[in-house]
Amino acid sequence: MKSERGTPLAEEPTRRRYDSLRRIAQAQQTSAEIARAARTLFVAKGWAATTVRDVAREAGVSVPTVYAAYGNKTGLIMALADAADLSADLPRLLTDLETTVDPRRQLAAMAGYDRRLFERAGDVIMLLREAGRTESELAQAYRAARARADDAHRQVLAAWPPGTLRRDLDVATALDIYAAICNIDVYTELTVERGWSPERVETWWGSVLVRELLGEAR
What we know:
Helix content: over 70%
Structural class: mainly alpha
Order of helices and strands: HHHHHHHHHH
Number of helices: 10
């Protein structure tokens, strides 16, 4: 049996279901295009100088479409920050940490995660920090991200047997040293200003962390 349009009636529910999936896919694609446009403009022009209208024009969508997808500029950069964490491959870090009890290898795993994060999303981290200077919500988000990183590192260091850390260090001081070594500013200085490869930075971080936290040469 066919509908008035000549389409078999049995196919109509399937087509409607696929139409729904198609709309979801199109919406996701639009959101991704908006996010890519925002990231490009934020990096090129800066947070303050970029407007929602600029983002809409770059993405080829209307201003209301941007607001519908992300709410405002703050929502946009928050979404970019969330995606930054995903880009560093947290499951890989967890696997690396859980498959060894060797502190040197665990430090190398953490350095590898930070390298991936800064290599793939360093621009977003810098944007979030910049925007936080004028937007309290984004400043709080930046602080929260730093606190999550500290907490993750603390869990690893605190799980080591007594005597693993260098004798003159406690966990809090070890965290401070880690943060002073593995951060976006050091990474940027070495890769952008000094011409180091990300791989070289990761290797150096691993060696320095072993020396500074464990008190031994790698």
